[in-house]
Amino acid sequence: MSSSFANKKFAIVGAGLIGRLLAVALAKRGAQVELFEKGGSDAFKSAARIAAAMLAPLAESAITEDNVVRMGIHSLPRWKQLISELAKPVFFQQEGTLILWHRQDASEAERFASHLESNCSRNLNLSKPLHLDSQSLAKIEPSVAERFTQGLYLPNEGQLDNRQLLEALLVELTLMKVPCHWSQAIEPETLRKNQQFEWVIDCRGLGAKASWNSAENSNKDLRGIRGEVIRLYAPEVKLHRPTRLIHPRYPIYIAPKEDDVYVVGATEIESEDMSPMSVRSAMELLSATYTVHSGFAEARILEMATQCRPTLKDNLPEICFDHASNEASLMMINGLYRHGFMISPAILDCALEILSDGASTTAMNLGLKVASAVSIPLEASVCA
User: Fold this and answer.
1) Each residue of 72-92: b (16+ CB within 10 Å) or e?
2) Residue 198, domain member (yes or no)
3) Residues contacting 291, CB < 8 A, separation 6+
C-alpha cells in the first residue's frame, strides 16, 4: 500500500481523532500531508478529548448494530499495533469489562446477559460473558466485593487514554514534519479548487454539518448527541478495568486511567447544547459512582466536561466521497457517534483502502457504509 501513496498530496480538514490518525498513517506511507484545524493543537474542542475511550464491542453490542460490533472487533488488535508504532507511550489496557448491578436490578441484568449471549452466538469472534459469583468477583475485582455478590466479566475488551493518544499523534506529526495549520478555519471546497492537492479529506465532525445536511445530502441529518463526563482523582479506589453499572435510570461506566484517575459517564442526550453539565446529571453520576465504591466519596473532581458527538440519521458511521475531473477528490468521514475510539482503526483502514485502490474489501466485510457524495449508496467494490 505504501507505494500507492508516495508523494501524493492530501489535505485533511479537522484534527480530531480520525483526522490525526489519517494524517499520521498517510505520512508514514510516504504521502505529502497538510492538516487544517480551526482550533488549537490541544484538541480542546474535539469530541475525542471528552471520552472514556473504552474498546468494548461486546458491551456495546447490547445497544448498537452488528456492523459496529464487527468494526470494534477489527479495531482492538489494530489499536495495539497503532500504539506500538508511536514514539510517545499511550496507556492501553485489555483486561476486559466488568458489569455490576444492585440486587433490585437483577432482572434487568439477566436480560442484559441474555442479550450478550445471543449476540455471541451470532458472532463467534465475540468472547462469551462469564458469570461471576461472590468468590470469582472478589478474585477479579476485590475492591467491589464488599458491595456486590455477582457480576459479569467480558473478556478481552480494552481501553486507552484518549488524551495521551491525541498528544502522541501530535508528537508523531511533529516528528514527520507534517505541516499543521492550527487556528485556521477553512472549507474543504476551498482546498479542492486550488488544485494543490489530489485528495481533500473532511474529518470535521459536527463542523461539517452544513456539508452533510446540504440539499444533495438531505437524508444524512448530521446532528450532535450531547455527552457528559466527570474526571475524578480517587487514590482510595483501585478498580483494575472499566466497570459498568446496570441501572434502569442512570447506567454508568467508570473507566480507570493511570495515576488513580477515573473517567465517569453515562448521559446521552439528543441535544447540541454544549453548556456546562447540569446539577442533576452531576448528582446522578456521582451518586451512582459512590454506590460502586465508597472510596469515591473522598475523590477529587478534576473536571466536569460536556461535548457533542457527531451522529448521522441511522447512528452509523459513513465514508462518503466524490471524484471530480477539474478539482481534488473529496472524502468525508463522519457519524462515529459514541463509538469513535472503539471503531476508528476500522474506519482508518477502510479509508486507506479507498484512497489507495478506489474500493475497500474491509468496508464490505465489516458492513461500513460507503456512499457517493450525492448520497447514492454504493457497494465498496464499485466505489471507484
Assistant:
1) bbbbbeebeebbeebeeebbb
2) yes
3) 102, 147, 245
The per-residue pLDDT for 194 is: 82
Mean of the pLDDT values across residues 337-358?
97
244: β partners: 99, 253
- Note the pLDDT tens digit of each residue in 115-142: 999 999 999 999 999 999 999 999 999 9
pLDDT band at residue 381 under the 50/70/90 scheme: very low
Residue 189 placed within a domain = yes
Q: What's residue 369's pLDDT?
A: 96
Q: Identify any residues that bridge with 135 across adjacent strands, giving them in sequence order.
A: none
Q: How far apart are CA 47 and CA 270, in angstroms?
A: 15
Give yes or no: residues 297 and 269 share one domain: yes
Cell numbers at 250, concatenated: 442512570
- The answer to the question of residue 78 being in a domain is no
Q: Are the C-beta atoms of residues 23 and 199 closer than 8 Å to each other?
A: no
Residue 366 placed within a domain: yes
Q: Which of 146, 118, 14, 147 is nearest to 58 (CA)?
A: 118
pLDDT grade for 218, boundaries at 50, 70 and 90: low
Same domain? For 168 and 42 the reply is yes
Helix runs in the chain, H state only: 2-5, 17-28, 57-60, 66-84, 106-122, 134-140, 162-175, 188-193, 209-212, 279-292, 340-357, 361-366
CA nearest to 161, candidates 241, 81, 90: 90
User: Is this model's pTM higher than 0.90 or not?
Assistant: yes
User: Within this chain, do residues 258 and 356 fall inside the same structural domain, yes or no?
Assistant: no
Is 70 exceeded by the pLDDT of residue 190? yes
Is 121 found in the same domain as 150? yes
- The pair phi, psi for residue 22, each rounded to 5°, is -65, -40
Rounded Cα–Cα distance for residues 340 and 338 (Å): 6
The total of structural domains in the chain comes to 2
Reading the block at residue 263, the C-alpha cell is 473517567
Q: Residue 11: helix, strand or coil by DSSP?
A: strand
Residue type, 284: E
